[in-house]
Design brief:
Length: 284
């Protein structure tokens, strides 16, 4: 009964994160980036290009472009993560078109520097909250996670390649190299805000978990996070007891979900989260 209540609290908390995150993401696009033709990376940036090139609504375009990526993610990513991601994508697409239809693309500033800074801040807050809700805003993040698991490329490298391609297409569409430079700055600002909202700047974390329920937690980690782990023998200096600990490397965006998993199985567990400056190997 206690586990069900805890799961429900976590679910409600995640839903709030997704809702508020989608609102911030849409505000950054509608009030700062779209009216100033500043393309972000990923699907959102591509949707901005299609909006000006073909006149398509940005929100609907984001949703349509994400559909094939969601279908691919259904095969390779966890169902729980993907369901939340689908909800985040739908909410972000809805609020983007809702704001644009009811308020119009009324930029709060025509100054490209201010639009870049505040657009990046708003998008970064939105993405960070969505990540805290154990989801993704879709787009390149889904593809990057899959490719990082199946190839030697790191998640950040895949996202960088996608962002460069999208912003390059925006520069060609708008025939303005300066807008592309502002777009790269927007991505940088947003990524820094995401890092601050999560648990530090490195894209990955090394987590050591001291617990008496190694098997239960380890199985939950593999099923929900899609990560393997290493079990290490340890001995308590004060108690002298022999016990095992779990060492696992996860994306920064997965730390909050990992914490929930550990708390669900063992409220007395001890977690140490440290930064991974560089990871070499499959999955990253």
């Amino acid at each position: 009964m206690e586990d069900k209540k805890y799961n429900m609290r976590c679910l409600l908390r995640d839903m709030v994160y997704l809702l508020v995150g989608a609102v911030f993401l849409a505000m950054g696009l509608v009030f700062f980036l779209i009216p100033n033709k500043i393309a972000t990376g990923g699907v959102a940036g591509l949707a901005i290009v299609f909006h000006y090139l073909l006149g398509f609504p940005t929100g609907i375009t984001m949703l349509v472009l994400n559909i094939p990526l969601m279908l691919i993610g259904l095969i390779f990513l966890g169902r729980k993560f993907l369901l939340k991601t689908i909800l985040a994508i739908i909410l972000a697409s809805f609020f983007t078109d809702f704001f644009s239809i009811n308020l119009g693309f009324q930029s709060l500033t025509d100054n490209l520097m201010l639009a870049t800074i505040y657009g990046g801040l708003s998008v970064g807050v939105g993405l960070g909250l969505v990540f805290r809700g154990d989801a993704s805003a879709g787009g390149g993040t889904i593809l990057a996670r899959i490719l990082s698991q199946k190839t030697h490329f790191k998640t950040g490298q895949v996202l960088f390649i996608i962002d460069v391609g999208v912003i390059t297409s925006a520069a060609l569409t708008f025939q303005n190299i300066e807008l592309a430079l502002w777009g790269f700055l927007t991505i940088f600002i947003a990524s820094q805000i995401v890092d601050l909202l999560l648990t530090g700047k490195p894209f990955a974390k090394v987590v050591h978990i001291v617990t008496g329920k190694v098997d239960e937690i380890g199985e939950h980690i593999m099923n929900d996070l899609g990560r393997s782990a290493t079990i290490l023998p340890a001995r308590g200096l004060f108690s002298g007891e022999d016990r095992n600990l779990i060492m696992v490397v996860v994306d920064a965006s997965q730390v909050f979900h990992l914490r929930d998993i550990v708390r669900l199985h063992d409220r007395e567990a001890f977690m140490i989260v440290s930064e991974a400056r560089e990871i070499l190997g499959k999955g990253f």
